[in-house]
């Protein structure tokens, strides 16, 4: 299977600096939320599944959260990410 990774890139004086790498294999891109607030980058990956079986409904839920502090001198609007 193709491995999906969340790359957190920082653009500082024309250099791309990698702040964090996060494995989000098994999550759909639309299930991944990234917010930048109060000098922190928060990543939330959330996956919910519902199956109806002979015994009734079965639910599958998994999530990953990660919080990364921005290095000094890096402003929140400089943060970019790619999936």
Short recap of the structure:
0% of the residues lie in helices and 66% in strands. By secondary structure, the protein is mainly beta. The protein has a domain of 55 residues: Immunoglobulin-like (Sandwich).
Report on this model:
- The chain has 83 residues and is mainly beta.
- It has a domain at 24-78: Immunoglobulin-like.
- The protein has no helices and 6 strands.
- It has strands at 5-12, 15-23, 32-37, 40-53, 56-69, 79-82.
- The chain has a 3-stranded antiparallel beta sheet, with no helix packed on it.
- The model is unreliable at 1-14 (pLDDT under 50).
- Keywords: Cell projection, Cilium, Developmental protein, Differentiation, Flagellum, Spermatogenesis.
- This is Outer dense fiber protein 1.
- One of its GO terms (biological process) is spermatogenesis.
- It is found in: Cell projection, Cilium, Flagellum; Cytoplasm, Cytoskeleton, Microtubule organizing center, Centrosome.
- InterPro entries: A-crystallin/Hsp20_dom, HSP20-like_chaperone, ODFP.
